[in-house]
């Protein structure tokens, strides 16, 4: 050891063989709207709604039903129905391979999850689309599960609630997929004739064949904030009509302003709002007036008593009856 080494203090010794203690992966997430870094556990408790800006992130079908129905009341409907590759469809991958991959990466076995259970004590049948499963596309299994849930709703005379999140019809099933639009519509019409309420909740995104059928047929149509709802996407429309669309076009707020939906509800209040609706329809789990609000509904309910309107009112007579309808070119 030299004289210089004696007067210079030795460096801090570190133990070898001990790796750096890293931060476990998967603890944090970033909001795509405000870019805030969020603790995943906190985000899960808020049902995937950003606590900073209120942005509603996408939620899996099974997770949505678990958060919507009362604890330990969920019983699956149609889980035994599985898709078949009838057409032996193949694009860049075989259809059966796409299905296998989707099942591995999701808790759901298909693009919709059906169940029956209770909502604040009131029995209901419910479905929730899972956009992470092949874009929530509607194929033959989705249609069959929807009809089975509607059958349960009719048989037991309980309300039907559906949370939509879909890119549209499933192209790998061709006409088998398109047929589900008519199939689900017929089931809704049958329940309506029997006086069974159907509440449709539109989440981001609800597009294509799902928006053109079951999603827009609710007795009450609710949307989550800023949900994208429409048939064709905004870019497709702009390229077709060669015009710039208005700001917020096809968003929930735009649709509410133009009368296409009934209300916008934060995901964290959806249980209270739908429970209040069911009370008013006479399907609630509590006696009238027993709720949190003065009118027996949830704490923030904004629903007024609905007037029953005749679906086939008598035709008006006189000069006004002969005037053309708006947009009638004849």
Broad shape: globular
Supply the helix-strand structural class: alpha/beta
Order of helices and strands: HEEHHEHEEHEHEHEHHEH
Tell me the count of domains: 2
Q: What is the correct CATH architecture of the largest domain?
A: Alpha-Beta Complex
Proportion of beta-strand residues: 5-15%
Distance between the termini: 107 Å
In CATH, the homologous superfamily of the largest domain goes by the name: 2-enoyl-CoA Hydratase, Chain A, domain 1
Poorly predicted parts: 286-309, 319-327
> Strands of the largest sheet, in order across it?
3-4-5-6-7-8-9
Describe this structure in words.
The chain folds into 2 domains: 30-58, no CATH class; 60-305, Alpha-Beta Complex (2-enoyl-CoA Hydratase, Chain A, domain 1), CATH 3.90.226.10. Helices cover 29% and strands 14% of the residues. It contains 10 helices and 9 strands. It has helices at residues 3-7, 40-45, 61-68, 95-104, 140-156, 174-193, 208-211, 234-241, 252-257, 270-281; strands at residues 28-30, 37-39, 75-77, 112-119, 122-129, 160-166, 198-206, 220-223, 263-264. A 7-stranded mixed beta sheet has the order 3-4-5-6-7-8-9. It has a two-stranded antiparallel ribbon with strand order 1-2. The N and C termini lie far apart (107 Å).
